[in-house]
Structures are given as structure tokens and as C-alpha cells.
């Protein structure tokens, strides 16, 4: 038998007999590793760890620590759910059962039978019983005829519908225990690693997402190798419910929605508006120091503008439709993005190489038609404000400008308590270049600039093919919040294409015309989404400098209201914001209400405080801090407002 050469992630090359499996490779390294291997990645594709390797390959062994390892784990768990359902609900028919970001689901047709969350315990028990059998997941290639014959005999029209779109020679079955499924894989070596099981929800789902077809029952679940990990996940899930930004936004009176205004169009209440203005002011100050110039553009633009940019051809059908002028001679669109407007600002007059880089910034509100089923609080809306900026620079300035933007994004994250993040280098799909505009040369130059800039800044990075914008590659910042959830926030994008489409030019030091490069950047991404993520990350306990109400002055009774008002006025003069609670309520109720509103400081005033010209200070979540003069409190407040401790963004050299 001939040998094959296997390249491992550390670059080492090992020789194995042809037909060896990834599990064999793991065993050759250590038995401990083999026990933890869930699947493998062979030449970039996820495989069963038990699938034979017949030729030279690059192999990565996947464990629970790898996202792709979890993919195989949860894919196998979906099959385990299906096996349990088939045992408990005879005659059940199966649609699809994929893994998702957290767990898996399976769409099933129960016929006349019904299933609710009350049935979850017995299904979970059956899944655990089957998992303990440690039945192997066996992969088998079948012909199209064999696949059709099998599911015709079984009477499962959903699988037959799926088979119809498959090519003969590419069809595989997976079998574990008594259950057989149409599936591409990959799967675990056997069911044994699935130890902790929780079904989480049941919902309706139309077959193939088509409202004219039958509605199936979709059962969601999640599994883990250890019960402790499931317990921790369920705890985080409960915390997530408490931190839901829609719930907190309502309780803290930050924003609301109105059906009469329109779905996906948030209304910012006074406290939420103060929060937005603080965020805008914070970034505007940092941008000014970094050499940005603020601009303002209209909420609409002519259809021709977006035809020139290429956005209309890509997104026009899925956007708000054109607005016609009364005389019918023109068509306009609600602004879906700011970059074409900024191109026209650049083009307003001739530019010299001495002016570059030119950094134009705008808090610009844009409008995109998200499907109603995809709208979700502030995270998916139809009208949102981007902290947008576009840098026009010479080709030799791209990498340096890109690095400066990285510094700005990191400053924003540090100031707002986002410490756990990964920078995702999003490149175009080399196998599908038709999705993108621009020359190969421009793409290669811009992709190289991003990769080098990220490396020089020592960013933790992952690379994703096919995730680039249609006009250029980008660096997306994937942030993990306090509950370990991953969000895409800041983004930086290199663009050689819009300058070409808008015929942007500058006169170089050779007195010739040259094309600038454009960098798109948005550290927040959108204010709406950023506020939603920040709300859930900090549970509504905003950094002190950002809190809409930083203090609540609480008079013990009406007799001390005048003193409370004077205290507040003095603190307002030194830019400490909040309110006086002059309600006819007991002090205990006032304190509880301020705690619920997550007001950072409560200043309690009564007879003693008035006589001594002091305040009794309580801090949210900490309790009593004792009596202070206003000067002492102001000094304490300034130290606690940690934004003043942050290192500012350096002025551009």
C-alpha cells in the first residue's frame, strides 16, 4: 500500500499509509488527543475524523475548542434528535436538520401528532439513552436511484424533494443506530461525546421557507460534552434575557418603536438621545484630533448617483424604491450609504497630492429595507446612523492610514470596555470573482495592505474568504461581550473601485493626474447596533462618562428640596448630569427606583447634610460611600469617570 504525506497546522509533514483516517493521525500523536477529536479539516473542508484519506493533504484536527468542531458536534446532535423522534413518534417525516451558531434544529412533519415544550424532557431522555450506546456515524455513498428508492419506501416526501436537486454521484447517507439520513456530513466518530442535552424551543417553519407549502415543526436544541458547560450556557442564556437591549431600552427610557412611524424605525427618547450625543461627541473629539473633517450630506440622492457607485445594480431591488419628483423628470433614493456623497464632496474642486490624506467624517443616517421578519430591536433596523468616514489618500499612504484607523477603533473599544475581540480579514472568494467589481491587481494590492497592517499592529486575526464587500476587502472587528457572544462592530475597508467609478483625481508631485485610494471606516458601525450591543454588554450599567443620568439627588422630605436643587445646580456647573427626585415618596423608594434606573450615584440630603453643606453618597451596586462635601464628591466623581484616564488618540504626524 502506498503512503501519503499529511501536512499539519504547525507545518510539519508526516507519512501515513493511504486509507488512514484523521483519527489514526490523532492516535499517532497521542491517545489523549484522539479521545478529544470530533472531526477534521482536510484541505480546508470539514471531514469526518473516520473518513479515509487517499492522497496527500493538509489536515487540522478539530476539538470542542474549534468552531468547526462544534459544527460537527451539533450536526451529529441534530441526527441524534431525529433518531429519538423516530423512536417516540412513529411515522414522523424529516425535513432538514442543520447546526446553527448555538446548537441545532430539525424540521419535522409529525402528521396528526403534536409536540410541545412539555414533551422536551422525554425526548431529551431518549437522546441521552441513544447517545450512551456510542453508535458510530457511518458514511455511505449511494446512487440517486438508491436514495429515491429508500425514501419512497419510507414515505418521506421531504427527503425526495431534496434528492431531486442533487447530482448522481454526490449523494451520501449517514447511519447511526437505527436511523438513516440523507446528509453530506460531517459527523462525530460516534454518539458517545454527546453528554449534556437541552431542547430549547419549538416553532413553526414552512418547508423550504415557502409560505405556500406545509408548515413543519422546528425543534431547537443545544448539546455539550459536559453537563457543567450546559449549566454555564443556560446561566448565560438567563443573563441574556435580563440584558436584552429591548427590555433595558424600555426600562431605562432610551428608545421606542411606533407602528404608525413604521417598522424598524427607532424613536430615540430624551435619555437615549443624550446617550447618542455623548457617543457622537466622544468620537467626534477623537476624530478631530486624528485629522478628520466633519461633513453633512442629504438624506436622499439621485438614482444616478447610486448607479454610478454600483450600489443600485447590487442592492436596488432589495432597497426602498425610487421616489419620483412631482414633474416625473427625476428619481431619488433614500440614502442607503454615505460613500457616494463623500466622493462628490472630494470631487467638488481639484485636489493636490499635498492635501492627501483627506479624511471626511459624518454621522449620516441611512435607510435600507430589511425584511420584516429580520427586524430585531436596534440590531436590525431600516433607518440607522453610521459613524461613517472616508479617507482619500495616495497609494503609498494606504497602509499607514489603515493602521491609524486600527488605532482609533482600539481606542473606542478600550474606552467602552470591549476587551475581547478578533479582527476578521474579509477577502473576496477567489472561486467566484464575478461577485466583485474592480481589477485583480487592485484587489491584490488592497488585500495585501490589510494583511500587513493587521500583522504590524499585532492584532489577533482570522481570515475569511468570500466575506469582502463587493468593492473591496475589509477588516471587521468581531467583539465578544460579557456573556461570550460574538458581534461584528467596527469595520475598515479598502476601495480602489469607487474612485475609479467617480473618476476621482489628484495632481501628483510629477504634475500628472493620479487616482486616489479610498478607505471606508466606521468604529461603531452604526449607532443603533452599537448601543444595543453596549447595553447588553454592560447590562445597562454604562461607563460613568456615558451614563445619561450620572447622579440622582434625593431629598429625604420636601423640606430639603431647595437644598437638593442647589446641590444639583452646583454639580451641573461642573458638567455632572442627572436629576433631583422631588417626588412625595419615602427615601427608601427613591433609592430603589434610582437603583432600578441604574443611576451611578445617589446623593441623599436631609437635615444633617443641609446643616453641614454636605451630601450622603451611595454608588449603584456598591452601597453607602459616606458623607462628602461637594468638592470631595466632584473629585471622587472625576476619578471614577475613567474616560479621563484613557490615552487620547495621537494627533496625525
TrEMBL record:
Keywords: Aminoacyl-tRNA synthetase, ATP-binding, Cytoplasm, Ligase, Metal-binding, Nucleotide-binding, Protein biosynthesis, RNA-binding, tRNA-binding, Zinc. Gene3D superfamilies: 3.10.20.30, 3.30.54.20, Anticodon-binding domain, Bira Bifunctional Protein, Domain 2, Threonyl-trna Synthetase, Chain A, domain 2. GO terms for biological process: threonyl-tRNA aminoacylation. Its cofactor is Zn(2+). It is found in: Cytoplasm. Belongs to the class-II aminoacyl-tRNA synthetase family. It catalyses: tRNA(Thr) + L-threonine + ATP = L-threonyl-tRNA(Thr) + AMP + diphosphate + H(+). PROSITE patterns: AA_TRNA_LIGASE_II, TGS. It is an enzyme of class 6 (ligase). The keyword Aminoacyl-tRNA synthetase applies. CDD domains: TGS_ThrRS, ThrRS_anticodon, ThrRS_core. Homodimer. Residues 1-63 form the TGS domain. SUPFAM superfamilies: Class II aaRS ABD-related (SSF52954), Class II aaRS and biotin synthetases (SSF55681), TGS-like (SSF81271), ThrRS/AlaRS common domain (SSF55186). One of its GO terms (cellular component) is cytoplasm. Binds 1 zinc ion per subunit. Zn(2+) binds at residues 339, 390, 520. This is Threonine--tRNA ligase. It comes from the Bacteria.
